[in-house]
Amino acid sequence: MISLSLLLVYTILGKDKLIRNTVRGDTNRGGGQYDPENNILTFDPLVGVEHINDDQMGKNISDQKGNGKATSPASIFLHEAGHFLNYRNDYEGSSVLFEIEDKLFTNLEERRVIRDVENPFAAKKSGNGESPRTNHGGIPSTFSSPTSTKPTGVTPAIRRQIAVEKAIKEAIKGNKN
Ligand SMILES: [Zn+2]
User: Fold this and answer.
1) Nearest to 105, CA basis, from 141, 39, 140, 58
2) What's the pTM?
3) What's the 135 CA to ligand 1 centre distance in angstroms?
């Protein structure tokens, strides 16, 4: 089932060949990404994020605790489309915002997209379980459908990263003993 909002995004994108041509599926289960230099929006329709509280920002992924709230894969797609439109409307301005670091939102371009695109959508779709994010963090997770807000687990890439971090921790502990 595709939500009305996702259909709307497809409709907007469909009007513009430039945009339509840059959307591609992600085969690495990595989730959404927008590359302004090459004009490519990549996303996986079954990968979204479980949110983390602000105090988890900056921690290693293996130490982060999800807070049970989530952003659906559809909303992540909307997020990346937000970057796309920002760069398309004002490439220089968006590039400047991208370079300005922000503790909770990574940079000001991420903050703009989360506050102006992602969170208003989440507020509208709260009945579907969407929640606004208070930071740019989150644990990339798998979902059973594009509009689901119930994560079924972390992505394979994140599972590997967690395993590596834990192995490093154990190795360091071993050296101390
Ligand atoms: Zn982003």
Assistant:
1) 58
2) 0.83
3) 11
Which residues hold their Cβ within 5 A of ligand 1, which is an ion?
Answer: 110
SS3 118: helix
> Residue 28 has what pLDDT?
57
Higher pLDDT, 163 or 43: 163
Return the structure tokens found at 110: 């991420």
126 CA distance to ligand 1 centroid (A)? 20
What is the structure's pLDDT at 18? Answer: 46
Could you tell me the distance, in angstroms and rounded to a whole number, from the CA of residue 118 to the centre of ligand 1?
10
Q: Please report, for the chain, the start and end positions of each structural domain, with discontinuous segments joined by +.
A: 4-176
In this structure, are residues 73 and 46 in contact, taking their beta carbons and an 8 Å threshold?
yes
Alpha-carbon span 105 to 172, nearest angstrom: 31
Of the candidates 43, 23, 48, 44, which has an alpha carbon nearest to the alpha carbon of residue 33?
A: 43
8-44: pLDDT as tens digits: 555 555 545 444 445 666 555 567 889 888 888 888 8
Rounded distance from Cα 107 to ligand 1 centre (Å): 9
pLDDT at 136 over 90: yes
Distance 32 CA to ligand 1 centre (A): 8
